[in-house]
Design goal:
Layout lengths: L26 E3 L4 H10 L3 E10 L5 E8 L4 H11 L3 E2 L5 E10 L2
Antiparallel strand pairs: 1-4, 2-3, 2-5
Helix pairs in contact: 1-2
């Protein structure tokens, strides 16, 4: 009598999963915030609150950035979008998600 067939090999674990509504914990590296501080100072505001929608590849590269919630200041929004293009997420699955963003001069 033949032995029973071996069970199927386990699937490899998936890469880290991203919380689509808050990518902050998934950031592995980020560029300097100097341009954001300058844009905020020039705006006359002491703080800004906005959300960015990021599309990214499995290696964590950001491929597209759009405004999900505006700071109500075009220059600040543009500075944040430019900054976010330099963000590197930890490798995992490709996808998209929201990066809530608050920064201040304090």
């Amino acid at each position: 009598q033949a032995p029973p067939p071996a069970p199927p090999a386990p699937k490899p674990p998936p890469g880290p999963s991203y919380h689509a509504n808050d990518l902050r914990a998934s950031i592995c590296s980020k560029p300097s915030t100097g341009s954001l501080v300058r844009a905020l100072a020039q705006s006359g505001s002491s703080s800004a609150d906005l959300s960015l929608r990021l599309k990214f590849t499995a290696d964590g590269s950001v491929t597209e950035v759009s405004i999900a919630k505006s700071s109500r200041n075009r220059d600040l929004d543009r500075a944040a979008q430019s900054w976010a293009r330099g963000v590197k997420l930890c490798p995992g699955s490709a996808g998209e998600g929201i990066l809530p963003f608050t920064f201040s001069l304090n």
